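Data deposition worksheet. Section B asks for the primary sequence of the deposited chain exactly as it was used as input, without tags or linkers unless they were present during the calculation. Section C holds the resulting structure in token form. Section D is free text for depositor observations; keep each observation to a single sentence. Incomplete worksheets are returned to the depositor.
Section A, Depositor: J.P.
Section B:
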Amino acid sequence: MKQHFANLIEEEEASIDMTPMLDVVFIMLIFFIVTASFVKEAGIDVNRPEASTAVQKDRANILVAISESNQVWINKRQVDIRAVQANIERLYAENPQGSVVIQADKMANTETLIKVMDASRAAGVFDVSIATQEE
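Section C:
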């Protein structure tokens, strides 16, 4: 019987408890997921006009692209011009600090650009910028 208790004590001392290490790893994983910033794209490449007064925008979270054929793209999908306001409202609710950046092709109509700007302002986003290329 004495030998049996001695074996139990030796086995318990030899095992390593992995729970604290797993807790730390899990907390680090959550920290990195929460603090990561993800790059969002509008969905298409546009040929932006050049501007000599272009300024770099750091926190542009809502990207809207307008193609040369006046198609509006948000989050890699084509959106009807009448649904732009609802999409911007949804994206702005997800990130209230974000701003709208419109990537309009230089061959796109000004009318489409103005409609997208009006839709973003109607959605409550007043920080609206137009993307350009530096000269």
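Section D:
Residues 2-35 form one domain.
The chain has a mean pLDDT of 79.
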